[in-house]
């Protein structure tokens, strides 16, 4: 209805998975890198999780497109199968012929084994991709694990990519699946789009559809990001309805008013949603625990070019999950901000969140320094409860003890076997403050602090690292009202 009015050739915000409109945000690209890394390793299982509509199918399609011609793939879209149906479906997907009468698990397994061995002899790799894998039965997952037992001295003959909602993580924690969980060599939890990616996403799809100008003003984009939480499917629904509202209002540009109209028609809530894409992210928190739990004094005596940068695993300060009723309410609010499910009761939250590419820190810090991190956080109160804060306008309760707990997105490559990705990233950020080859890290830190009005400590302390990461990374959006 609105195509001619806006000069469009096709619907820009259809929810159909049209590859013409494929937009790979930084998070989608990072998820793709993790999956590709998993296929290059020696393990049997690769895991991709994310909330409904975050773009898991987009990532899987991009992965299939970049696989080599030597890769044989089986794509299972309906996971509601028993063991026999799974084996038969794999045979069908790989083009393996078998007798349809009197089939048994053994006969099907034998056929698959022969096929996998022959494919390996020809230099081919076999990959199974299962969508909506949270619906798989434990017995079926165990059957998949048994199939991955086939291996040479160097490689598995079958790789399995499991794609599903966060509940899949919970399923794989079941005791009877612990052997399978240990075989997951790469995993990634796909978070919603950042605010900057939302704008690029909208404009990209409009351009592909034939738009010759911007059709959404900046306030409209901010509002649609807030209401959608950065989830692409919700973005498409809201933007499509907003264009229709603009057509009905006979205006040439979508404004905040049309976004609100679209939200009412779609039943979206008007209040700011506590989703990961809004309060999360600045990467200011990525390294904050380095100064809380890692000794940096050794850095100050060596040239930056030769400095031993912190290992990836050193930035996660382990904090025990609060257990009181008041604390649990705060934990629920904090996890809702990241769109995460509730953690198991017997596992510390700071250990559990690493499955979702998040780090964790619990420490004492001034409130203005916590605000500068631009992260949703919990403040511990004197009675043992925890106050949840998610924007710079909130104030701590009078009984705040000074203790806080916050989560942050880990830098790209953090959980891969190669820690140099993270170390090189940090070195690159500090490099811009080098004035001579003789500058050590003490000098670099002092230069940075002087240039940007930070407390002069000549150390890579919490405030300095927070500023550095929040101003020189795009790992996530910042809090509304934050810097």
UniProtKB/TrEMBL annotation:
Residues 42-185 form the AAA+ ATPase domain. The keyword Membrane applies. The keyword Nucleotide-binding does not apply. The chain crosses the membrane at residues 280-302. InterPro entries: AAA+_ATPase (IPR003593), AAA_22 (IPR049945), ExeA_AAA_ATPase_DNA-bind (IPR052026), P-loop_NTPase (IPR027417). Keywords: Membrane, Transmembrane, Transmembrane helix. PANTHER family: GENERAL SECRETION PATHWAY PROTEIN A-RELATED, PHOSPHORIBULOKINASE _ URIDINE KINASE FAMILY. This is General secretion pathway protein. It comes from Pseudidiomarina homiensis.
